[in-house]
């Protein structure tokens, strides 16, 4: 019984912040360190937060990266995410990817520009960029895709006429 009582007291002593700090200071005193080594490093990142952003040559280059083709390395897709200098890594979300989708075999009466965006929004409501390839005869749409969900392989389009 005596052993468990002293064990509890040691545990209480270890849990006490005041005693832990006193013990740390006592042990640090035994190290014989210089004053320079004992001085803690204080990082003032308030002004530098703006300087440590991703550096690109200009806004045009940044836009090219964001709206360019889906980026990949060794056949693995690279998902980009915007971030702030004060964000934590756990706050970043890598769950969306923009892909170019092709809508082939589009009926002739739906190849007019007024139909492009409504048709592309059938794939995803967030679609904003749409082009029609007159040579290939297909509609191209930049579609945001949630990578945690299965890909939609096709959409059915039929004309009311």
Radius of gyration equals 30 Å
Q: What is the succession of H and E elements? A: HHHHEEEHEE
Structural class: alpha+beta
Report how far apart the termini are.
92 Å
Oligomer: single chain
Percentage beta strand: 15-25%
Report on the biggest sheet: 3 strands, antiparallel
The number of E-state strands comes to 5
State the helical fraction.
25-40%
Strand order of the largest sheet: 3-5-4
Segments where pLDDT lies below 50 for 5+ residues?
Answer: 48-54
**Arithmetic mean pLDDT:** 76
If helices are DSSP runs of H or I spanning 4 or more residues, what is the number of helices? 5
Indicate the overall shape: elongated
Quick synopsis:
This protein is an alpha+beta fold and 161 residues long. The protein has 5 helices and 5 strands.
Kindly describe this structure.
With 161 residues, the protein is an alpha+beta fold. It is 30% helix and 16% strand. It contains 5 helices and 5 strands. It has a 3-stranded antiparallel beta sheet with strand order 3-5-4, covered by helices on one side. Strands 1-2 form a two-stranded antiparallel ribbon. Strand 4 and strand 5 form a beta hairpin. The longest helix is centred in the N-terminal third of the chain and has 14 residues. The protein is elongated, with a radius of gyration of 30 Å. It starts with a helix and ends in a 15-residue tail after the last strand. About 4% of the residues have low confidence.
């Amino acid at each position: 019984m005596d052993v468990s009582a002293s064990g509890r007291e040691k545990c209480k002593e270890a849990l006490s912040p005041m005693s832990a700090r006193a013990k740390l200071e006592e042990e640090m005193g035994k190290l014989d360190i210089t004053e320079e080594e004992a001085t803690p490093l204080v990082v003032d990142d308030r002004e530098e937060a703006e300087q440590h952003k991703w550096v690109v040559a200009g806004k045009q280059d940044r836009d090219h990266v964001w709206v360019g083709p889906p980026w990949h390395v060794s056949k693995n897709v690279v998902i980009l995410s915007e971030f702030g200098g004060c964000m934590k890594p756990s706050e970043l979300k890598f769950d969306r990817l923009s892909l170019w989708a092709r809508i082939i075999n589009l009926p002739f009466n739906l190849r007019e520009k007024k139909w492009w965006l409504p048709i592309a929004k059938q794939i995803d409501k967030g679609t904003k960029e749409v082009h029609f390839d007159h040579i290939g005869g297909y509609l191209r749409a930049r579609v945001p895709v949630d990578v945690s969900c299965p890909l939609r392989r096709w959409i059915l389009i039929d004309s009311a006429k």
